[in-house]
Sequence to fold (386 residues):
Amino acid sequence: MKTQVAIIGAGPSGLLLNRYLAKHGIESIVIEDRSREYVEARIRAGLLETQSVKLMEELGVADRLYKEGMEHKGIYLQVPGERHHIDFEELIGHTVWVYGQTEIQKDLDAACDKAGQEIHYEVTEVALHDIDSDHPSVTFVDKDGNSQKIECAVIAGCDGFWGPSRKAIPDVEVGSFERVYPYSWLGILANVAPSTDELIYAWHPDGFAMHSMRSDKVRRLYIQVDPNDDIANWSDDRIWEALAKRMELTGWELKTGEITEKNILAMRSFVSGKLSHGRLFLVGDAGHTVPPTGAKGLNSAANDVRFLGEGLVDFFNKKDASLLNRYSERAKETIWRVTHFSWWMTTMLHTSGNEFDNQLQLSQLKHLFKNKALQTNLAENYVGIR
Ligand code: FAD
Ligand code: DHB
Fold:
């Protein structure tokens, strides 16, 4: 197979990049090691910044988002006995959208189908070759067991944190940063109407709790747990009790319902030393990951797609490599901003069990409730004004 850009991974980064390139007349081939059904059902992100929504609109994949998504004007921040609304619209005139990553995947897949763009699902043995040259290639074994080779001018590594692309860069660990946090999230999906109009982020001495949603009938909730904890220790009743206790507020009730999915997620910050090498470019979680608090992962992946897309459009359509050569530098500015914001939200809201840390966190949150400048800072970072 021959193409201009070989895209490894059909998550949000890979498919958004494919649609961006197609819009500008650039050909790409996408390969993915999971099945389409698996990728479309994978429960992950749920909150989109203004910029990500704009990108989806530009790529013609925002119709259902505008119809079925929920526009939120702010969030609630809580400490025991006090819940405060941080009003993004009033503070900075911007909003965010609640719309599940599962739905984004479906919309992107549907757009690919409509455009006749085939995606090679369930591939194995993916390997990158000659990334230092101007004719790199990707080999893999397709779903039917046939060995395949994609000859291309550029490889986009959109294969997430565990994929092979980053590992293909020599000495990639030099200048890379990683922090694994001493807590995890237990996340559930429940078939019950949200008990709140906007998301609640709650600090509690027992640990962080969060109320998000996917629609007016489906809720997404999280609680902080120990990273060594086992999901088998958490019966549905225990989860609901912990959520109710950590988000308790006079006059407010957390309604319970059927839990349809539950799992424990590790939390890490990671920034790769290099986001590109020769003709290989890393996009999204392949190059950087954040802990989920603050919802930046998918949004910063969308930001990478725009920067790489712009560079590739100049490279292929104007024969000008200058923007492409600055991809890493341009993307990293945003990556470090979201790395800091996610770290800040995470460390401010998750408890360590140490009373001195508790008091510092409470003081910080109570100061934020009173201070418009701090709220504005939170709002700008949360909606992605950079
Ligand atoms: P991925 O989604 O990981 O996609 C990579 C793809 O590459 C996958 O489909 C994978 O199967 C494929 N792949 C891997 N190896 C290979 C291979 N060898 N060959 C071919 N394909 C391969 N972000 C937000 O912005 N907002 C949120 O609200 C939010 N909430 C989150 C909640 C949770 C519980 C979690 C876990 C994450 C959340 N995130 C959130 C983060 C967000 O989901 C990720 O940042 C986003 O999925 C990154 O997209 P990606 O395409 O770069 O990587
Ligand atoms: C969601 C996850 C987050 O980490 C966050 O900050 C907001 C929303 C979610 O899954 O809905």
In short: The longest helix spans residues 327-349. The longest strand covers residues 184-191.
